[in-house]
């Protein structure tokens, strides 16, 4: 079970556990039991999002396990959710949050993130598309969205707000106008996409970084047969043998040792336990550096769609698409 020191402090004063449970791609029928098991095993940080379409089931787990007379007290738990791309219009922000709170059966969130900097067409269809398969975009400026996010903090509905998938210029754009500063940036990050520059950029500005897909997301839909497999990396496997750990544990240790929060997803009890067991050993500076040197700026999570029989980046046509900057 993680000890008391295994957290980072947000600029709000909140303690954010360095290791959490990710719930992206956790299927209905599995995610409730996974969350309940995780809470019983010692997890106190659960990462959610509207777009994962499983918050109602996670809410059932919270209802059964979290409360004044339950095994986990609400104040011990750190819960994150995310505003989806179809809800960027300022009028949609609070209703979207309230829907997440209703589904999760919570009175407040510890952290609420803008999931992506670019918007899709307003409405309840998560993935609005044209007949040719291309996304139907909306062009609400994320700074307008941010002003509505700030009101959630003022109303006590969320304790902190933050960003996800924003690049360095977009982060600075928010910081330049924000009355309530973003506390966290969540981005894809793992040894093949070390994000060293972006993490330094955030830490300098007082943002904590949360890597998602820290193990390379081997179960996602648009996996390419020729892509490098992070968990098969020889250097990682050698370290796993040296420390008597799994390759996944070595990668998670590398992340938490750099003081970045990480949210691996699993629904398997053995893996849920294993992912927590990264606080009983340390990597040397040389080993940390050797893992960092595996970086190849390889991005696994670029959502793809089929247009005219070809796979293309789903959101690349939007002017606020974040991956056109170096970091």
UniProtKB/TrEMBL annotation:
Statement: the UniProt record of this protein carries the keyword NADP: yes
A biological-process GO annotation: doxorubicin metabolic process
Catalytic activity as recorded in UniProt: S-nitroso-CoA + NADPH + H(+) = sulfinamide-CoA + NADP(+); S-nitrosoglutathione + NADPH + H(+) = S-(hydroxysulfenamide)glutathione + NADP(+); a primary alcohol + NADP(+) = an aldehyde + NADPH + H(+)
Enzyme Commission number(s): 1.1.1.2
Domain NADP-dependent oxidoreductase: 19-295
Site-annotated residues for Lowers pKa of active site Tyr: 82
Catalytic residues (positions): 52
Cellular component, GO, one term: synapse
A Pfam family matched in the record: Aldo_ket_red
UniProt-annotated location(s): Apical cell membrane; Cytoplasm, Cytosol
MF terms in GO: aldose reductase (NADPH) activity; glucuronolactone reductase activity; L-glucuronate reductase activity; S-nitrosoglutathione reductase (NADH) activity
Family the entry assigns: Belongs to the aldo/keto reductase family.
Name under which the protein is recorded: alcohol dehydrogenase (NADP(+))
Organism per entry: Sphenodon punctatus
Gene assigned in the entry: AKR1A1
């Amino acid at each position: 079970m993680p000890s008391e020191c295994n957290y980072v402090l947000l600029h709000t004063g909140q303690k954010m556990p360095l290791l959490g449970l990710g719930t992206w791609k956790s299927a209905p029928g599995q995610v409730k039991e996974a969350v309940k098991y995780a809470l019983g095993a010692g997890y106190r940080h659960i990462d959610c999002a509207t777009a994962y379409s499983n918050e109602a089931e996670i809410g059932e787990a919270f209802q059964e396990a979290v409360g004044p007379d339950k095994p986990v007290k609400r104040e011990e738990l750190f819960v994150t959710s995310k505003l989806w791309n179809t809800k960027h219009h300022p009028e949609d922000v609070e209703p979207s949050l309230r829907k997440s709170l209703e589904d999760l059966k919570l009175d407040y969130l510890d952290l609420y993130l803008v999931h992506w900097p670019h918007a899709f067409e307003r409405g309840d269809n998560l993935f609005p598309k044209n007949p040719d398969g291309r996304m139907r975009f909306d062009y609400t400026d994320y700074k307008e969205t941010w002003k509505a996010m700030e009101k959630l903090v003022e109303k006590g509905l969320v304790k902190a707000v933050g960003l996800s998938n924003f690049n360095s210029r977009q982060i600075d754009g928010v910081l330049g106008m924000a009355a309530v500063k973003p506390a966290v940036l969540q981005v894809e990050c793992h040894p093949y996409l070390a994000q060293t520059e972006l993490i330094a950029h955030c830490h300098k500005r007082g943002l904590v970084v949360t890597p998602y897909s820290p193990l390379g997301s081997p179960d996602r839909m648009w996996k390419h047969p020729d892509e490098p497999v992070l968990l098969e990396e020889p250097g990682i496997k050698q370290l796993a043998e040296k420390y008597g750990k799994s390759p996944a544990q070595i990668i998670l240790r590398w992340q938490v040792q750099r003081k970045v929060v990480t949210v691996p997803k699993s629904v398997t009890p053995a893996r849920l336990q294993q992912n927590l067991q990264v606080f009983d050993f340390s990597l040397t500076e040389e080993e940390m550096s050797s893992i960092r040197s595996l970086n190849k700026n390889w991005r696994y999570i670029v959502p793809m769609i089929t247009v005219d029989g070809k796979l293309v980046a789903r959101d690349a046509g939007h002017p606020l698409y974040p991956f056109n900057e170096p970091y």
